[in-house]
Amino acid sequence: MNLSFDRSRSIEDLEGVRWPNPPSDATTLVLAVHALRKSPISNLTVEQLARLITQDVGLPWLLPVGVEILQGEAAEGAAGGWFDDDLLTAVLTRNSSAWLETPELAEAIKNVLDMLGNELSPYLRDDADRFRAQLRS
Hints:
Low-confidence stretches: none
Structural class: mainly alpha
Oligomer: single chain
Mean pLDDT: 89
Order of helices and strands: HHHHHHHH
Number of helices: 8
Helix content: 55-70%
């Protein structure tokens, strides 16, 4: 995974792969993912990042961005503020191979989880436990 890249470029540009147009009967999710791959990464919202990460699209570029955002939000969340459950869930539930390729990102997420501590909802605690378990395997 690339930790340093030009965020003004799209996933499509960074991958060097152009997906064919989605079929005419494609779901709104498929249409959205196709469109979001063409957007500059710097223009993606947190919700759009979570959607793409959940679909395992552009992980080499989006996981570092997602982790960076979560690190910034964790301090607020630990102080009783808001943090993005959807993005955290998207990041935590990726396949262990994504984390084995970037142990520094996995360590950053473990630190985010430690900062949030008791602020995690029960379903996020389950995701966090599974995340930690897959790293130990």
